[in-house]
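User: Can you model how 2AL sits in this protein?
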Amino acid sequence: MKIRVINPNTTASMTEKIGEAAKLIAAPGTQIIACNPASGPVSIESHFDEAVSAVGVIEQVMAGERDATDAYIIACFGDPGLLAARELTRAPVIGIAEAAFHLATMISTRFSVVTTLGRTGIIAEHLLQSYGFAHHCRRVRAAEIPVLDLEDDGGRALELIIDECLRAKKEDNIGSIVLGCGGMADLTEQISDAVGLPVVEGVTAAVKLAETLVSLRLGTSKFGDLDFPRPKAFTGQFSDFSSK
Ligand code: 2AL
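Assistant: Here's the modeled complex, given as structure tokens:
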């Protein structure tokens, strides 16, 4: 099966890292296509970044539809464009935040999220509310690192994330931790070893959930609101989105 893993930001090194993490966990026979939009923010750490990145996600799903894609993963913790992407395909589309929340509730009754910047915590809080997971989450915490610091191998990002996870373990009365950024996909084992709690990471969680849905032949329902968008014209820079 072919899974298209979309990094919604335009940083190629992060796309490569996300793709590697996905390949490492994927079953034999699963092909991982890691990609990112041609245009958009280099990192997503505001509502503005998220809104712009959602268009890039949609373009990547449209490209995947021309390439016999079996499932899509949106590999940014705000799950930008998730419902819009689902409208465009019969394949399953999974956001890494929703994947991680689902799995965390299956191994623990309460978790905390450790994300990058405090200002993006509200994005995770909104998702917890809208997905119905809010009562499973004790706290959304931030290591206060900009997303692109995760690309700096010599930096202190890992240390700061582990410190915040250890504070969560001490103060939050939790059974597990959810990592709150696609750029943390390669750090799960090191963080879990250092913290001594189960650590759920969304890219890897989403790959296993996508494989499960595809093997169960469960795709996005075309009954109701996730049906293909009604045909219409788009103008200006979005004229390519017009129905042919
Ligand atoms: C993210 C993420 O996963 N990728 C990105 O660019 N921004 N979200 C986050 N909370 O750090």
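A couple of observations from the model: The first helix runs from residue 12 to 25. The domain at 97-202 is CATH 3.40.50.12500 (Rossmann fold).
User: Helpful, thanks.
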